[in-house]
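Appendix C reproduces, verbatim, an entry submitted by the partner laboratory led by Prof. M.T., so that reviewers can inspect both the input and the predicted structure.
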Amino acid sequence: MSRMQFGVFIPPHHVPTNYNPTLALQQDIEIVKLLDNIGYDEAWFGEHHSGGVELINDPMLFIAHVAPQTRNLRLGTGVVSLPYHNPLWVADKLALLDHLTRGRVILGVGPGALASDAAMIGIKPSEQRDALDFDMDVLMHLLTSDEPISVETSRYKLVEARLQLDFYQDPHPPVVAAAVVSPSGPRIAGKHGLGLISIGATMKAGVDVLAMHWDVLEARAKEFKSKGRPRRVANSEYNAFSQNERSGD
């Protein structure tokens, strides 16, 4: 029987906002190194662009920095806010990062947690979940198919797009969808056979819907005949400064 694995979600929160950002980021790095040394299996990092509390605006860049300073820890994006990005560049950077980490990267995706992030690039919060659903179709095609893809949305355009670099992991790094309260994450996870990050398990409202999330995931997996049983991931949240609840997904 395999042992239970442990992962930590590091947003990270830094409050109050009159801190030294260089020191705060170094503290986050030291936390990751400590987790690796004491035997944790995974560490996850969020993407935020406003508020001044969570400083990591590119979890892939942060992972690239801490990967050489760790040995065994798997490093996940928790999450890449996919509607903010061109899916081709997300897939392209993921392939590079997979090689740089020697297969220790995990891709977590979500619609974006902060309405103020979306507002700065002209995306309405009401549009984020539909955008994520569409973008996941594009992203998974790029990850799993050699066939070029052409699509056009109000946010990006792809013309005969495909990846130039294959992945280190076979067939590609694990991909998981985030779930807080709404069923959007489980719907996407079930459709594509992905894992599920149950970030909502850190708050009462999220705990109350965990069973519903899994039911939705299994129903969607059956509907789309997803291959394999998705991995269930329930992240604990570590924050050196405060234990704040996450905003809704």
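Residues 138 and 190 are 16 Å apart (CA to CA). Additional entries are available on request from the coordinating office.
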